[in-house]
Every structure is written in C-alpha cells, then in structure tokens.
Specification:
The structure is a single chain. With about 475 residues, the protein is α/β, with parallel strands linked by helices. Helix content is about 35%, strand content about 25%. The chain has 14 helices and 24 strands. Strands 1, 2, 3, 4, 5, 6 and 19 form a 7-stranded mixed beta sheet that branches. Helix 3 runs antiparallel to helix 4 and helix 3 crosses helix 6 (about 180-190). The radius of gyration is 25 Å and the shape is globular. Residues about 460-465 have low confidence and may be disordered.
Length: about 475
C-alpha cells in the first residue's frame, strides 16, 4: 500500500515537535496534526508561563531581602499586570520562532490544523480530509483533571490552562492540591503579593518527595506567608460578594479565585482509538517499553501514554518511538526520569525514595546518605543555606536514588541520573569526581567523602584492611 505519509504525528506539543524534527532528519515524510496551537502545554499552559511568573516572583523576593546583602531599596512595588504581560511576550516570542508552524513547514513537514480521528487501519481523518500513514504517533498530552467540588462556580475556578490567560493576579487565591503545580504557584503568588492559601488532602505537601526535603520546603513557604493546610479535603464551595468560600468539615477558607491543581488526565477522547483496537486504561494509552501500542503501526509518547508527565520525558519518548518505528527494536524508553519542582529552593528527584527502596530491596539492604546545605560555602555566600542532598544506595553502594533541595537543584540532579543509568557507586565513583568550587554541586563530593569516612569506622572494614595489610 502506498501511504500519503511515512508518519502522522497527532499533537504538536513537546513530543510532537521533537518527532517532527527527528522525522525530517531521518528522511521520513511527516505530517504534524494539531487541533489548537503548536507548542502544546509546555509553551502555553505549563513550563514556559509558569517559570516566567516564578522568575518575576523570585525577583520580588530578592528585592525584599536586599538589605541583608548591604543593598538599600526604598520599597517593592509589584504590578502583576506587567508580570502577566511579560509572561505572554515570552510565550509569543517562542511561538513565533522555535515553535512556529512555519519553521516545521520549512523543514519539509506538512502542518495540518484540525482534530485528528482514526477511521481505519492507517487512516486518519483531519479537518474533513482523510490521510494515510505508514506509522502514527499519538502525543496529545494531558489536561487538568475535572473539578469535583460541589458548588464551585466555574467563573472563579482556575486551572493551569486558564490562569495564564488572566490579565493580572487575583487579590487572593486558594489552591486545591499541593503537588508540583500547586506548590510552585503558591510560592509565586504569595511573593507577588497575593494572599495565598494551599489546601492538600495528604498529610503533607509534595507526597511523592522525600519528607526530609518536602517538610523544610513547606516550612519555608509558611515562613514567607503561604497558609498551608494539609489533611483536608474541600467538600463544597459557595460564591458570593466577590469571594468563594471552601468548606472542609468545620473549617472554611475564602479567596477571590480558586486554583484547582489536583492532577491531570490524558487527552485521548474522540481520537477513535477504539475503532482501530488500541488499548487504553486509566492513565492513558497502553504502551510497552519501546512506546508501541498493541497495534503494530501505532505508537504513543508523552503524557497521553501515562508514563511520566514531564516535557523532557515526552521529548525523549518521542525520539525512542521514532527510532523503533524506522529501526525496529533499537531503543527502549529511558529510565530513570528526573524531575524538578521549581520552587525557591528547587526540589529535584530521580530514582527511588528511601521508603520505595526499603520496600523494594528489603530491610538492611538500603543505605541513606545525607549532606546538609548549612555546610556549603556557596550557600553561605549566597545568604540562604536551606537545603540538603540525599542519596539512596543499595548495600553495594550503587546509587538508586538522588534527591536535592537547593538552588539550581535541577542542574545538579543530572549527576545522579547518569549514576543510576550507569550503575555507579557513591564510593569510589563520586568521591573521585572533582566538582567545581564553590558550587552547590560541591556538596555531592563532600557527601561521598563523608560516606568514605563512615565506612572507615565500620569494624568489618577495619578488619578487612588489617587482613589485607598482613597478606602484603
């Protein structure tokens, strides 16, 4: 059968645009199908706008604390309309350059505007036209999970999709959900002068993270002014006189707007996946380690495949999928996948937590190594030593988890990602790795050195060294 395209890419977000560029480099004729705007969640409702807002909030916080650095500032004046306008300019700059449809057309990709739907084997309908493709890659992303708070007026409800479409920040904000999105926005909004309340059903914020790092981060947010309430579930809401009240038992909280950040769901409805027999489940399209679905010519990557909901993993998965399409069996999905919560300080994570490691490996087979940022010369110079590095190893000192609470932790965590991939040991691999001084990463080397010193104190180690010396 002769196909219109070698590859049809459904979704022009992070995975889709990487797939489109890679396809042209492979010499494949590709179509990039997007129902809304090229760039997807990352550009329009995720990474780019949130980090732009966070950057403004960080500047505001720095200016407030300028006196501690010997710098005098009369007062801090925050114009959230200007903050939002800056964010939108940044989005537009990326949309008209790196993520512009014209860029992909110039590469040789056919950019098709409209909603895609499978209508048969190798057949896709888009904007009233049916195309055929040898392979299809579904990378339609995810959307905020539906709001489930009785009485919550949609006109006051914000999600990660519409908060960045505002003209300015609200005067007060209640955030439901203390995962990465909720926590990042709580700190940013509070620093921009918004009265902020953070509500979380779990006993603590960021329940997927190491408690020894999430707890001091919660304390930092509370110290800055964020009102944190954990172990509560918003049961209903009432709106009146310009304010919304959230109720949980006898407790209640009021705010001008409510941001719901309680999770995401895959965007796979109305794709016609059932018409071609593709298996799906609660988390999205079912794929194997090579990003293949149960239908040989159809692959999926990114949020809609339900593995990891991150821009960087979506892009990596798209590359794996294409290699397996055109060079069958050549590549498997990357693991482990690191992530970072872009608070101040940042909290970065890769591999297993201590609890996960003990559950998987069993008692006595896990070692936890910690190094506090209070010993960092760089942290002292920068005026903020809140943070810690935690490394989880197995009984042979192989690194199986890395967790960092520190400024620029997202830059440091890659060391542990490589270590887990390459099955490196904390000692001697990391104590022999010279880090630049003074940086926050210097702590990695110091942590490894502490592990060496601790080992020297172990009776069995001392005995082995004594035997070795006697044997010459």
């Amino acid at each position: 059968m002769k196909y219109d395209y070698d590859l049809a890419i459904i979704g022009g977000g992070s995975a889709g645009i990487v797939a489109a560029e890679l396809a042209t480099n492979m010499g494949a004729r590709a179509a990039l199908i997007e129902a809304e705007r090229i760039g997807g969640d990352c550009l329009w409702t995720g990474c780019v706008p949130s980090k732009a807002i966070l950057a403004s909030a960080r500047v505001a916080s720095t200016v407030r604390g300028a006196a501690a650095f010997g710098v005098s500032v009369d007062r801090v004046c925050i114009d959230t309309a200007a903050v939002w306008a800056r964010m939108k300019r940044i989005r537009e700059s990326i949309a008209t350059t790196d993520d512009s449809p014209e860029r992909f057309v110039d590469m040789g990709v056919d950019v098709l505007q409209g909603r895609a739907r499978f209508v048969g084997s190798h057949r896709i309908e888009v904007a009233g036209r049916t195309i055929t493709a040898r392979y299809a890659l579904v990378c339609t992303g995810s959307r905020p999970a539906p709001v489930d708070i009785p009485g919550l007026d949609e006109s006051v409800c914000l999600t990660s999709e519409n908060i960045f479409e505002l003209d300015r920040a609200p005067a007060s904000l209640a955030i439901v959900g203390a995962g990465p999105i909720g926590v990042e926005m709580a700190q940013a909004m509070n620093r921009l002068g918004v009265e902020t309340t953070l509500l979380e059903f779990a006993p603590r914020i960021l329940p997927r993270e190491e408690p020894a790092l999430a707890d001091p981060l919660a304390a930092r947010l509370a110290e800055e002014g964020v009102r944190i309430h954990c172990g509560v579930e918003a049961e209903r809401a009432e709106t009146g006189d310009g304010l919304t009240t959230l109720y949980a038992g006898d407790a209640s909280w009021q705010a001008e707007r409510v941001l719901v950040a309680t999770g995401r769901r895959p965007t796979i409805d109305d794709l016609g996946l059932d018409s071609v027999g593709v298996k799906t489940n609660r988390t999205g399209i079912v794929v194997d380690g090579k990003l293949r679905t149960n239908v040989p010519w159809l692959y999926a990557a990114g949020d809609c495949a339900g593995r990891y909901l991150f821009t960087h993993s979506a892009a990596a998965e798209a590359a794996v999928a294409l290699r397996n399409m055109f060079y069958p069996g050549s590549s498997s999905a990357y693991a482990p996948v690191p992530w970072t919560i872009f608070t101040d300080p940042e909290l970065a994570h890769v591999g297993l937590t201590e609890a996960e490691a003990r559950k998987r490996l069993g008692p006595g087979k896990v070692r936890v190594h910690e190094w506090d940022l209070s010993h960092s010369d760089r942290a002292r110079a920068d005026g903020d030593d809140l943070g810690r590095i935690i490394v989880i190893t197995d009984s042979k000192e192989r690194i199986i988890g890395g967790h960092v609470l520190a400024p620029h932790a997202g830059e440091t965590i890659s060391q542990f990602t490589i270590a887990i991939q390459k099955k490196m040991r904390l000692t001697p691999d990391f104590n022999n790795l010279i880090q630049v001084y003074p940086t926050y990463a210097t702590g990695v080397q110091q942590l490894a050195a502490d592990a060496i010193y601790a080992k020297l104190k172990e009776p069995l180690y001392r005995f082995a060294r004594r035997v070795g010396s006697l044997l010459g």
